[in-house]
Amino acid sequence: MIISKLHYISQGNTPEAHLENIQKACTSGAELVQLHLTDVSDAKYLEIAKAAREITFHFQTRLIINSNYKIAKDVKAEGVHLEKSDICPTVVRPDLYSWQIIGGTANTLEDCESLIAKNSDYIILEPFKSSTKNSSTKALGLDGYTAISNALITEKPIIGFGDITTDDVTAILETGISGVAVSDAITENFDSIKQFNLLLKASATGEIRHTFE
User: What region holds the Thiamine phosphate synthase/TenI domain (predicted)?
Assistant: First the structure.
């Protein structure tokens, strides 16, 4: 499966708001969305994930489930994204369908190398910019992205994340980063998806999509 160049990371004040925002993202042309729920029970996560799968299936949008690989398998999402504190990708892989993908979060070159060694399918490298959400982690910026991209020998897609706006995309791509994951900027203006896709040259009609048998 080709990894989309634009990932929308869902947000919302309630689980239902996450669904509303996923629907808006799909309507606006998102090719991949990550359902990113925190502080909810597994039962609630599964309920919302099933609803998200219905929405994304209708729009032929790829769905990634954050952290919970069992739910990703249950709802037949395209894959799971594992945070640094989550279970190891090598443990998760045998429990997923063969066509499902695994992404991982990295903050450093060493994190990236570890995820590559564990056969993650893509890496989200963060933060590009610092924010109150990740204030304990130093912003990588363009210099950090360039240094890590130059040091890595891999064909795995590296996706930038961390308060990225459309103004940042061109410079980020020049560092060797493959694409971007965006939450705030898209949630504030879903029409920006079209601009992100244009800057990333991520045409929805130009990518191969997985179809279920």
Answer: 15-186
Burial class (CB in 10 A: 0-12, 13-18, 19+), 124: buried
Q: What is the CA radius of gyration of the chain?
A: 16
- CA separation for the pair 25, 143 (Å, rounded): 30
CATH of the domain at 155: 3.20.20.70
What length is written for the chain?
Answer: 213
How many domains are there within the chain?
1
Residue whose token pair is 């898209």:
186
Task: Write out pLDDT tens, residues 142-163.
Answer: 999 999 999 999 999 999 999 9
> Is the model's pLDDT at 207 over the cut of 70?
no
